[in-house]
Structure formats: structure tokens, C-alpha cells
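Obj.: predict assembly geometry.
Materials: sequence records (below).
Method: joint structure prediction, all chains together.
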Amino acid sequence: MDVMDSIDRTASKIAAAIGEPARARILYCLMDDRARTSTELSAVAEVGTSTASAHLHLLLKARLLKVVAQGRHRYYSLAGPEVGRILEGLSAIAGTMSPKFIPSTPNRLRAARSCYDHIAGSLGVTLHDRLLKLEWISKNGEGAAYAISPKGRAKLKEIGIEIVDLEGRRRHVACGCLDWSERRSHIGGSLGAAILSLAFRRKWLLRDLDGRGLTQTSLGRQEFRRCFGIEPSN
Amino acid sequence: MDVMDSIDRTASKIAAAIGEPARARILYCLMDDRARTSTELSAVAEVGTSTASAHLHLLLKARLLKVVAQGRHRYYSLAGPEVGRILEGLSAIAGTMSPKFIPSTPNRLRAARSCYDHIAGSLGVTLHDRLLKLEWISKNGEGAAYAISPKGRAKLKEIGIEIVDLEGRRRHVACGCLDWSERRSHIGGSLGAAILSLAFRRKWLLRDLDGRGLTQTSLGRQEFRRCFGIEPSN
DNA sequence: TCCATGATTCGTTGTTTAACGAAGTGTCAT
DNA sequence: ATGACACTTCGTTAAACAACGAATCATGGA
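Observations (raw C-alpha cells):
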């Protein structure tokens, strides 16, 4: 009975965290699964940066948000899918409006882009998520680093990437790299570099004139699909 | 965009309603689907009756609770299953504890009892819910009254109850009657009376010595199951 | 009818907390 | 190094609101 009470109490704390208008605006803004910076969220919440900082701190403590520090930016995002579900549920009660009107997953896709020496943009994020889903890589590594599974090694070897060649250097073999425009992780580290270099070599991707943009060739579309099971997006 | 904002705002209001400790205690206490009075809930929330009244008013406005007036009592209960789901969801996030530990549906069953001239207690409630589920009765009637469906008439006739004989009197043919101990509706009106009288006549139920309690016979268990599909409870 | 009891409304008090600006910390660029 | 920028921490103020007791309304029983 005592345990139950404490659950109720923390549940109530969580509800209270959502129950403040400025914080609710922050949370619902983050429902598209993109990470945003403190200052951006202060604009969304329509409060000063210091106030937003306090709100974000509280939301972190309530385990509704998580944060990733990247340089002098701190990217905040929803702590997990359960949080999104709670928010959807509340909206569902709120309006007679059906939950499908809530701006959750559907998101405008952005073009591929390079980030230093690996693939960023929507393609980079898709690839990143896909490798995790396929369990070629897993989050078991230290920090933001990913571990490569035996299956991943085999499959990547088939494609033409030898993991052993990438190991033993100072650089991580694979790690999540937060994307400036997508605000989600894409695949970085020497594996990310190897994939981009492979894609250039095989003419899956062409470098744009501005040096950062990438264009996927029709061959590239086919090959990304064949190798990773990625549906042609745009 | 404006519509979205308003949804967020009311969602935030709902969360705020849950986010006050006293109100959270009230809500989680009501998760067993039983209606409770204002004074009882004030005890649960550990506040005075006037404070509880204010909280209950707010929860009504937030559409998290509904209320049924019965004499000088007002029975409060959760507004719907979505509310329970939200509360469960919050608890799920709150603890690492799994949602199944939340005291939602499983509830100690109470013995059958008579309420004036019809069946109350757990059996009465079960019967009430069953008749609705089978769609022999529906909530289309005025107020707390139920309408009897054609199917219901036919099935009840098979059992030995002629609805036409019950109609045209001042009394409702069927209506929900809030149970003092179960705090949930059982089946009242002349249909309720007819069922109890039938159960006595056929020795499905025996009146206890105290005059209010009812004992289900083994024949009764069989027959309630055969006629209404009610599983033998205790 | 009158009284007892459940429940709500009202007015007051005290606590909580959201908001801001100013000052402090850390990171990138020149 | 030094300035610019992103972000947080601190101290203060003002508004929101939960709590209570007293008064009021409503219902059921004597």
C-alpha cells in the first residue's frame, strides 16, 4: 500500500510537470521526435531563456525529456515513446478530436547531406535507425559509441566494408552523431566515413556543387534498398 | 495551428488536474471503477470536505470524473475508460514498476444482496453489466432508465419474464440503481423486481435470515450461467 | 414540521512557483 | 587571449491556488 502511494505521488508529479502551459508547449512541440535547443524551446514556450532552462531541468528530473550536449548546444528531446503516448492520450481526452491529428511521427523528409565525412540529413538518419533495427549495431558501446554485432560484421563485409580495418584507431568505429537539421542521430565514426566513401566510389551518391549537399543517384536508391532495406524516400 | 494550440492547452489543463497530489489520490482511488461519495473522497485525499468539493468540481470540469446524485449523496467515479488508461500510463512512467500492479479492474467480489425488491451486491452489478453487454437493455431511455431491446424482450420471455406485463405502470421497467456497497449500478425497476421474484420462485436464490442478504443456490449458479452467461463467481 | 446529515459556496490565509534580469560557466571563433 | 554566444544559476517579485472554517443549500427521517 505504501508502494502504491509512492507510485501515485510520482505519477502526480509527472502530471504536474505536463500540467504547466509553458512546459506543455515544449513537450507537444517535441512530439515530432526532433531534438531542439534550449533557446528554441524558450521561444516555443514563449518565456525567457532562464525560465525555459528551469522548465527543462524540471522535465529532465521528471524523466519526460532527455538531453544530449553537442558543443555549446544542448539538444532536448522526449525521453521515450511512452512519453509521446501519454501526451497523445491527454490530447485524445482533451478534444473530441481523434489522436491521429496529433503531429507525431509524420515528418517532412530532408535531402541527404554530408556531415564532415559521413552521411547526414534524412538519409543519414534513416540509415542510422535501420542499422539499429537490423541489429548490425547496438547501443552497448561506451558513451555514444555503438558496438558492431557479428551479424553486422558479416553483412557489412558482403557489402564491401571490413570492420577489422576500421578498428584499433583512435576514432570510434561507429557512433551516433546528432544532425543539425534533423536533430536526430545519424551514423558517424569510421563506419559512417566508410559507408560514405563506398557510396561515392560506387556512384550511389554525388557531391553537390556547394560541397555539403549530396544527391542520391537512381543506382544509389536501388543499392541502399538492396543492402539495407531502405525504401526510396525522395 | 490555432486548433492544435487549444488542444495542447486543454491537455495541459487535464494534466494539471491530475498533477495535484490530493486530486491524484482521489483519481487513483477511483481506478477500481467504484463510485464514491464526496466525504469519502475527502478522507482519501486527506483534506477537508470543502477542499475536496473544490477538487471534485475541478475534476468534473476537466471531464475526468462524472457524478451521479442519489438522494443526499453524490457518487463520483471516473468519467470513462480513457481516464483509467491515462492514469495507468502515468504510473507506468512513474515507476519502473509494470502497469499490472496498478489496482485497476481486479476487485473483491461481494455477496449478493437485495435492495428493496431487486438484486444488489456483486451479483446485481454483474447482472446489470451483462444485460447491457448482451444488448438486452440499452441506455437509450430517459434519465437513468433503460430501454429494452426486441432481442431482450425475446430472450427474457424465454426465461419467463413478459416485459409487456411490466409496462404502462408508473414505475420504470428497468433503470440503473446505484448500489450502496458496490457503488456501481445494478438492475432496478420492475424488471429488476421480476428477476428477483423469479429467482425466489425457482429457488435460484434464498433470502438470508437478516432479511437483506441473499444466498445463491447451486441450481442458481447453473441457471444464472445458462440464462445470462454469468460465470459462477463465489 | 423540524432536525440531522451530506454537500457546496464563500472569504481568508499561507504556500508554492512561474517569471524576469543579472551574474556566472563553458564552448567556439578570431 | 578575447569577444561572442549558448546555456545555466541565483535572487527577487508577483500571481496562482490549496487549505480551512463558517455559512448556506438540499435531502431524508423523526
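Conclusions so far: Chain B has a mean pLDDT of 80.
To do: check interface contacts against the pulldown list.
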